[in-house]
Amino acid sequence: MKKSLLALSAGLVFAAAGTSAFANSGTINFQGKITAATCPIEVSPPGGGVGSAVPMGEVAAATFTAIGQEYNRTQFELVVRDGAACGFADNTATVTFTGDADASGDFFAVTPTSDGARGVAIALRDGLGNMLNPGADSNEFDLNDTGETRLRFSATYRSTAATVTAGAANADVGFTVAIQ
Fold it and tell me: The domain that contains 135 carries what CATH number?
């Protein structure tokens, strides 16, 4: 037993010596920054308050009688409370909304569940009424560098078929605010 341990130890010494002959050195640069604050953006649904849910209300399926009809326009805002804390200085921003697109690619699909509505999607518009397709940038918004900035949008139910069937009509939509 002692002989095999000695032989193993000698083998490790020779292996270690063999690899050190080919050793090289180098430098790795790790780069980053620790900031004092973040720039939180809040969703403000209709009626004020803060939360990520924007209530769209209810619409009878029979209300939709053709493709392209829109009902239940609901305004909401993305709110930046303090431009100074975020480091804005004469900046603008664009907003990109992302999520599952409907079959046309122009609107946001409602969550496909067994009890989900069919023939309807969520259409988003900016404060000027311009349609916001999934993944497309909004128009530019001026940012308040010393106070609050409110980025205004609206959402509607939009029929994508001549016949809309009743059911849940929810959509999960993400957003990214890009400072210019």
Answer: 2.60.40.1090
What pLDDT, in 10s, does the model give residues 117-157? 999 999 999 999 999 999 999 999 999 888 889 999 999 99
CB of 145 within 8 A of CB of 88?
yes
Q: Which domain holds residue 107?
A: 45-50+65-179
Q: Quick check: is 4 in a domain?
A: no
- Token pair for residue 94? 């664009």
List all residues 6 or more positions away from 93 whose beta carbon is below 8 Å from its beta carbon.
140, 141, 143, 151, 177, 178, 179, 180
Residue 5 forms part of a structural domain? no
The number of angstroms, rounded, from the C-alpha of 92 to the middle of its chain's C-alpha atoms is 19
pLDDT in tens, 26-48: 667 665 555 545 677 888 887 66
Cα separation, 71 vs 83, in Å, equals 34
Distance, CA of 88 to CA of 39 (rounded, Å)? 10
